[in-house]
Design goal:
Blueprint (H helix, E strand, L loop, with lengths): L2 E8 L4 E19 L2 E4 L9 E8 L7 E8 L5 E6 L5 E5 L2 E8 L1 E8 L4 E4 L8 E4 L6 E8 L2 H12 L4 E4 L8 E12 L5 E9 L15 H7 L3 H7 L3 H6 L6
Antiparallel strand pairs: 1-2, 2-3, 2-4, 2-5, 5-6, 7-8, 7-13, 9-12, 10-11, 12-15, 13-14, 14-15
Length: 248
């Protein structure tokens, strides 16, 4: 029996393409992050299968990423890759086609309520201490744009009300699932525009992946004269999805 896992970073789309092939049904594909192993979001019905191509639009940018694939009656297989990009990306996790690349990420601050809570009790000189869960982050994000229209388009992403994912290449563990409680657009320096949002961190949202970015059938039509020409370049349909050509 065999189980293979291959990674194909796409820095131009800030996505990791993953292909797994097995003799038995693949049942799980996971990515490791600072909180542990999390399932890679995929389209409905992609698992179980023996040959899968998955696009991970939530993979960290600019840092090593570790993946694990598991199949029935086989030992788990691991692979590590990296998306070599300097982009800051804001996207809707379930619908990655709704995204924005942020030109300048100028401000980030966070506040977290600490676990210890103290209460003064009548008749006692020392306070009563209650241990509470550490709260999630909340604070301010500021993005800078060349035009007012660009700022409004990102504001519209927030206005949908769904949790968004902020990915950035500079600081480990700072990627953020969040919603906005308030947004403000203002004119900045040198004719630039700033969008400032008051954010609240959210748990990683559930739901299947809906759609992709950066690939369509029109691109195949533009690059290949007919099906025979395409067949001569790609070994199989999985190679078409990944973009791995056999002509070197």
């Amino acid at each position: 029996m065999s189980l293979t896992l291959a990674l194909f970073p796409e820095p131009e789309n800030n996505v990791m393409r993953i292909r797994a092939v097995s003799d038995t049904e693949i049942i799980r594909l996971q990515r490791s992050d600072y909180s542990g192993w999390v399932p890679v979001r995929m389209r409905p019905g992609q698992l179980p299968a023996k040959d899968i191509v998955i696009e991970d639009f939530e993979a960290p940018i600019g840092r090593p990423i570790r993946y694990q694939v598991q199949a029935e009656s086989q030992t788990a297989v691991y692979a590590e890759g990296k998306i070599n990009s300097r982009d800051v990306v804001l996207s809707l996790p379930q619908i990655p086609a709704q995204y924005a690349v942020i030109p300048v990420f100028s401000q980030y601050d966070e506040t977290r309520r600490m676990p210890g809570s103290t209460d003064l009790i009548i008749g006692r000189t020392d306070p009563l201490i209650t241990i509470l869960p550490l709260s999630d982050r909340q604070g301010t994000l500021t993005y800078v744009f060349d035009t007012y229209s660009d700022a409004r388009n990102v504001e519209k992403l927030y206005a949908q009300g769904y949790p968004l994912l902020l990915r950035q290449p500079c600081h480990d563990q700072m990627d953020l699932y969040h919603t906005a409680e308030q947004a403000q657009i203002r004119r900045g320096n040198e004719s630039l525009w700033e969008l400032t949002v008051q954010y609240v961190e959210q748990n990683r949202p559930g739901g299947d992946l809906v759609g992709t970015v950066g690939w369509d059938y029109q691109s195949l039509i533009n690059n290949h004269a007919d099906f025979v020409a395409m067949e001569a370049v790609y070994d199989d349909y999985g190679a078409v999805l990944i973009g791995v050509r056999n002509d070197g």
